[in-house]
Write a structure and sequence with these properties.
Largest sheet of chain B: 7 strands, mixed
Shape of chain B: globular
Number of helices of chain A: 10
Radius of gyration of chain A: 20 Å
CATH class of the largest domain in chain B: Alpha Beta
Number of domains of chain B: 4
Oligomer: heterodimer
Helix content of chain A: 25-40%
Largest interface: A-B, 57 and 69 residues
Strand order of the largest sheet of chain A: 2-1-3-4-6-5-8-7
Number of strands of chain B: 20
CATH topology of the largest domain in chain B: Rossmann fold
Number of strands of chain A: 8
Structural class of chain B: alpha/beta
Strand order of the largest sheet of chain B: 5-4-1-3-2-13-6
CATH architecture of the largest domain in chain B: 3-Layer(aba) Sandwich
Helix content of chain B: 25-40%
Structural class of chain A: alpha/beta
Largest sheet of chain A: 8 strands, mixed
Radius of gyration of chain B: 26 Å
């Protein structure tokens, strides 16, 4: 195949997002990142579930598995275990990732299959019209919570670091170069990589705007050692109102790759099992 | 001729080990056996038993009769001593006041062998000796199972047991004749193992599951064969993850399966619907146990046919198969993989605790080659255009795999266009729905006619399916022998969905009465037949206690329906 260009990733499927949605920026930067990595669309598998963010997999040329709400990680990990030669990227919203699919997030971190989990975190349920998500601020008045949200927001970055997730980062599309650099690093990371993307919702959330993030975000500099779990945890738990961007934490523990397990091999091939089964039968005599 | 041996005691004492050693020994001796497990949901204590029905000819069903009781505890001895038939023999671990037993005590022999844990071997050896089996056959089984000092202790337990029975003149008391050729082609397996081996023969390369009784044996057996057979077994965090992993693995190109029981399957329901929408093949074993909710976790039932039939919102094609015997579990599971991939549907294998935990001696299965129904990379590459959901006459669209060619493969749980991208278009939505419904018609047209006896079609018809069918067949044979003539016809289903037009079977169309036997409240196949064939089902013989149907119980209940209905 000739050099990969943006043209290879473009399609004309109608975009069903609100005008001005942060997802447009994410889509654009995702395509650029895949091009910069030299990955042809045939080698890429995008997995998602249901919501506004998951629609992204239809808006670029690639293999796509758009499954159930919150279950995208389960399907994606299995697809990667089987098709080890594909680059697998999972897109979910904060509702699917941290609410409906919270259990799968916990166990994907433990399992460490080489997929990249990109969470479009806009602190709100967009497609169901503005209800609280697991990351909505306490006290914020949203649909179904006329008196304000009573539950504490989840801190998914601290959660991931505490579970020794093998790659934990946060990015925002309004800093495009940084976004691409960190996302590339996440995709290249040989293990489960988790990236929280800060994404303003122009229809339902008037607190977490681009201006808000412009004011509160800072990029981690070279004094931050992403291999230092304690330091990463302090950054994620800091209650100073500042929002960190960059790679908070990473480690080099080995990924789960069934293909490399002795005797397992390519799970897409259906070998003639007769000789092996004959030997297995002998155990039952 | 067959002899029924009940090995009873507290959970964890080794009754299942004893039954297994005995079963393997009988296989080597050219005899047959059917073993069922009656177990409580606990790891230690209580009263459990393994019942071995040994025969000169194949046996497939539980019996009430107890010819030999081997009791490891006073509680199990008191519970079952009365059930030992007249002429039966009772053996205890130690003397118990007020219960008469043979003067050969299992505990004494095990202690004399130098290891109290050899009590399992003692029990197996006493049974084998009573059946007149050569001691050397059991020695071979022990040599394969144990080594070192443990093997020596078990060998000693074996010889001491035979000596003790000879001293009492009991060797061969229940001798079973062997009519058999050399039994090299025989295997001793559980239903779960047969299903796991069938899955491998069917080309399974990926399983995701969450442990749940009585399904877990399948995943345990497959995991053990990971390296030898080249597959991956992933223990999922829950059943929801398991079914969604199966969907992902299948999309990526594996032949994928899961196994669970009713409660776990209830959690998978949305994922089943996903399989229907994205048309990814999958095999789902549902090992039934009594419900609702947790029910009786270690006991048996046939109550989930309707759950499996209707699971998943929306309309989509599926096939439901239920093996009747352990031998059939192999072939049916392998077939499920073929049907799943050919039609790109979820294929269900409905088993239950009796079948899963039961053990039997089977003839070694032939292993036919796997015929894949997905496009190879080369085949896909040759296509100028490819769309995952191309509209076809039979509703089946060629399935390419992601990454295998230059074509992209897109699937979507939303209604989608032929390329797999989500759509709201009315005409297209209808065309896609109709395409999926055409698969249901294609599948229904291939539904096989069930097996039926061909006696006078005006006789009453007894209808059976799954693991209770063999007990029904034996009970009916017993009634025919009593009467000296056939008293009813027997219709046995393996494929439960889709059903063919049963009016093509004279014994169904003309039956004077239709009597369905199924382990549960009788709202499964009985209702399904009434509904799909527009006929009356006159009686349903069910069971609510989680214990398997026995031949004697069924003979009595079928007799009542056939003669006095």
């Amino acid at each position: 195949m000739a050099d990969v260009t943006l043209e290879h990733y473009k399609n004309d499927v109608e975009r069903a997002w609100c005008p001005g949605c942060g997802n447009f920026g994410i889509l654009n930067l995702l395509q650029k990142t895949l091009v910069s990595l030299g990955l042809p669309p045939q080698r890429v598998l995008l997995c998602s579930g249901i919501g506004q963010a998951p629609k992204i997999v239809h808006y670029l040329q690639a293999n796509a598995f758009d499954g159930l709400h919150g279950r995208e990680l389960a399907s994606a990990q299995a697809a990667k275990m089987v098709a080890d030669d594909l680059t697998v990227i999972v897109h979910a919203g904060d509702g699917g990732a941290y609410g409906e699919g919270g259990n799968h997030f916990l166990h994907a971190m433990r399992r460490n299959v080489d997929v990249t989990f990109v969470v479009h975190d806009n602190h709100i349920y967009g497609l169901t019209k503005g209800q609280a998500s697991p990351t909505t601020e306490q006290g914020q008045k949203v649909a179904v919570h006329p008196d304000g949200v009573t539950a504490l927001p989840m801190n998914p970055l601290a959660l991931a670091i505490s579970q020794s997730c093998s790659f934990v980062a946060q990015i925002i599309p309004s800093r495009p170069d940084h976004f691409q650099q960190v996302l590339s690093e996440a995709i290249r990371h040989p293990g489960f990589s988790y990236v929280n993307v800060l994404q303003p919702c122009v229809s339902w959330d008037f607190i977490h705007t681009y201006q808000y993030y412009q004011k509160h975000c800072y990029v981690l500099d070279e004094t931050h050692d992403p291999y230092n779990q304690q330091q990463a945890l302090s950054v994620a738990l800091a209650a100073d109102g500042r929002i960190p961007l960059g790679i908070l934490y990473r480690n080099d523990r080995p990924a789960l790759r069934p293909r490399e397990v002795p005797g397992v091999g390519d799970l897409r091939a259906c070998p003639d099992r007769a000789p092996r089964l004959q030997r297995v039968f002998d155990r039952f005599r | 001729m067959d002899i029924s041996i009940r090995i009873a005691g507290a959970a964890g004492q080794g009754m299942q080990t004893a039954a297994e050693v005995l079963g393997r020994t009988l296989a080597r001796a050219g005899l047959h056996a059917f073993i069922h497990q009656d177990i409580e949901s606990r790891i230690r204590g209580g009263i459990n038993f393994s019942q071995v029905r040994a025969g000169s000819a194949p046996v497939f069903a539980p019996t009430d009769r107890v010819d030999v009781l081997l009791a490891f505890t006073p509680e199990s001895l008191r519970a079952f001593a009365a059930q030992a038939a007249s002429g039966g023999l009772v053996f205890a671990a130690a003397p118990v006041q007020d219960v008469s037993a043979q003067p050969v005590h299992l505990g004494d022999i095990a202690r004399a062998a130098g290891n109290e844990k050899t009590v399992s071997t003692v029990a197996a050896a006493i049974a084998a000796c009573l059946l007149g089996v050569d001691e050397a056959r059991m020695a071979e089984v022990l040599e394969r199972r144990f080594s070192g000092a443990v093997l020596e202790a078990n060998r000693k337990a074996l010889s001491l047991s035979y000596e003790a029975l000879r001293a009492q003149g009991l060797e061969g008391r229940f001798r079973l004749e062997t009519f058999e050729k050399a039994p090299e082609g025989r295997l001793f397996v559980s239903g779960a193992q047969a299903a796991a081996l069938g899955a491998l023969a069917g080309g399974c390369t990926f399983m995701a599951a969450y442990p749940m009784s009585p399904a877990t044996g399948i995943m345990a057996q497959l995991a053990e064969l990971t390296h030898e057979c080249g597959l991956w077994v992933e223990q999922a965090e829950d059943e929801i993850a398991a079914i969604n992993m199966v969907a992902g693995a299948s999309y990526a190109g594996a032949r994928a399966m899961t196994a669970t029981s009713g409660g776990g399957f209830a959690l998978m329901t949305e994922g089943v619907s996903l399989l229907g929408m994205i048309e990814s093949p999958a095999v789902i074993v549902v090992a039934q146990r009594p419900g609702p909710a947790t029910g009786l976790p270690t006991r048996t039932a046939q109550g989930d046919l309707r759950l499996v039939l209707h699971a998943g919102h929306g309309q989509f094609a599926r096939v439901i198969l239920a093996p009747r015997t352990i031998a059939e579990a192999f072939e049916v599971t392998a077939r499920a993989f073929d049907l799943a991939e050919r039609f790109q549907i979820p294929a269900f294998v409905l088993t239950d605790q009796l079948l899963q935990d039961g053990q039997s001696i089977v003839e070694e299965w032939p292993i036919p080659p796997v015929r894949r129904c997905v496009l190879s990379g080369e085949e896909a590459e040759r296509l100028e255009h490819y769309e995952r959901y191309a509209l076809t006459e039979n509703g089946i669209s060629p399935m390419a795999l992601p990454g295998a060619s230059r074509h992209l493969v897109v699937v979507d749980s939303d209604e989608h266009d032929t390329a797999g991208h989500l759509t709201e278009d009315a005409a297209l939505s209808r065309a896609m729905a109709e395409k999926r419904l055409r698969k249901m018609a294609t599948l229904a047209a291939e539904a096989p006619l069930p097996e039926c006896t061909q006696h006078d079609p005006a006789l009453p018809l007894v209808i059976a399916w799954g693991s209770s069918a063999p007990a029904v067949a034996e009970a009916i044979a017993m009634l025919a022998a009593e009467a000296g003539r056939p008293v009813c016809n027997l219709l046995q289903f393996v494929q439960l969905w889709p059903l063919p037009d049963l009016s093509r079977i004279p014994a169904f169309a003309s039956a004077s009465r239709r009597i369905v036997v199924e382990h549960g409240v009788g709202d499964g196949l009985a209702g399904l037949i009434a509904q799909t064939q527009i006929v009356r089902v006159d009686a349903a013989i069910g069971k609510l206690d989680g214990r398997p149907f026995t031949v004697e119980e069924l003979a009595q209940r079928i007799r009542k329906e056939v003669f006095h209905g």
